[in-house]
Design goal:
single chain, about 350 residues, alpha+beta, Immunoglobulin-like, 5-stranded antiparallel β-sheet, 7 helices, 19 strands, about 20% helix
């Protein structure tokens, strides 16, 4: 690197941005790598301040959403200006470098999102400004502890929300020291809550978490509900635990003021929107919809129930009785059809578990 830069400087052809592929099996080294390169750039008097890691995430881990979230967290701390998800061999012997899959974030036909796509969406949903996130000692990759969890958190005072994306990875497994310890609960403690008065003004905060399981080469219609509850602020801090997070999985966290937020529909890639469900569990459909197909799934992805119905144009459908009968419903997959039987909307609705 140093020889290349010296050569480029002597011929006045220095780049505006300095970049390299960094496919380390433990991305905790990223900040160190970036600092080493900054020292080299400064020692040569290059005036190059912009750094990009233009390939990250190795060939054996690119389908794991938890790994993707950890890489995003470490890149943020490294101070690099940007980073890019590497492309690799995909299903059917296809390389996702050359198709429309966003380097494998979508299925090979470019039609549906896989698990890591939801991680990048969770990261993109973070607005406002980033806030500090500290790993407890026993969750640190430096200790090769099997519950390595890392993430990115941001707070937006205008929108009155705090959002985060987090991932879990068995860092020690990469080194061959431990095996999977099973699913774990990930504890959180948000401090200095008085700095976000829009959240805890009533003394309580609405906490929502959604799990992003590993789907491999297959699509993931939507994240699964993991937590939806009110928590009290005590001693200027908010504490809660996100349950049942497995190796390689990711999850989002959303903090909102007491009273909660409307449940949103997450349309599948390339599908039409116009589908939603309200707090009363009424399904609202596009005005052109004449028929609807609904499948109800559990948190684990098990199909609980399904039905198809003709509807009056633009009518809301009460899902309450069907949800209660199925029990444990977390996700509804809704496909709407027009009067000619053509599909006009395809969406996964995160509706929370029913008792």
């Amino acid at each position: 690197m140093k020889s290349f830069l010296s050569y480029a400087k002597s011929r006045n052809v220095l780049p505006d941005i300095f970049s390299w592929h960094d496919l380390s099996s433990l991305p905790l080294h990223y900040p160190e790598h970036v600092q080493v390169m900054r020292k080299i750039l400064d020692s040569l008097g290059t005036n190059i301040t912009r750094i990009s890691l233009n390939e990250m995430i190795g060939s054996g881990e690119w389908t794991d959403p938890g790994v993707a979230a950890i890489y995003l967290a470490v890149v943020e701390r490294s101070g690099a200006e940007s980073a890019a998800h590497a492309c690799w061999g995909d299903s059917g012997g296809i390389y996702n470098c050359d198709n429309n899959s966003l380097d494998g974030l979508l299925t090979v036909d470019g039609a549906k999102p896989r698990s890591p796509w939801w991680v990048y969406k969770g990261y993109a949903d973070i607005t406002g400004r980033l806030v500090g996130f500290t790993l407890p000692a026993d969750h640190s990759p430096a200790n090769l502890y099997p519950t390595w969890v890392d993430g990115v958190v941001g707070q937006d005072s205008a929108k009155k929300v705090v959002r985060g994306i987090f991932g879990r990875s068995l860092a020690a497994r990469v080194q061959g020291f431990v095996t999977d310890t099973g699913r774990i609960g990930v504890p959180f403690r948000f401090t200095n809550m008085n700095s976000v008065p829009y959240l805890g003004g009533t003394g309580k905060v609405h906490v929502t978490a959604q799990l992003i399981p590993k789907s491999g080469f297959s699509p993931l219609a939507a994240p699964l509900p993991a937590l939806d509850a009110m928590y009290a602020v005590s001693d200027n801090a908010l504490q809660f635990t996100v349950p049942n997070v497995g190796d390689g999985e990711a999850f989002t966290v959303l903090l909102t003021p007491e009273g909660g937020t409307a449940v949103a529909a997450h349309p599948l890639a390339g599908a039409a929107g116009g589908v939603s469900i309200d707090a009363g569990r009424r399904l609202h459909l596009p005005t052109r919809a004449a028929g609807v197909s609904v499948r109800l799934y559990s948190v684990s992805g098990r199909l609980l129930s399904g039905f198809r119905s003709q509807i009056e144009e633009g009518r809301a459908m009460d899902l309450g009785p069907r949800l209660q009968k199925a029990g444990g419903v977390a996700v509804a997959h809704v496909v709407c059809y027009d009067a000619d039987g053509r599909g006009i909307s395809d969406a996964a609705l995160l509706i929370g578990q029913t008792k």
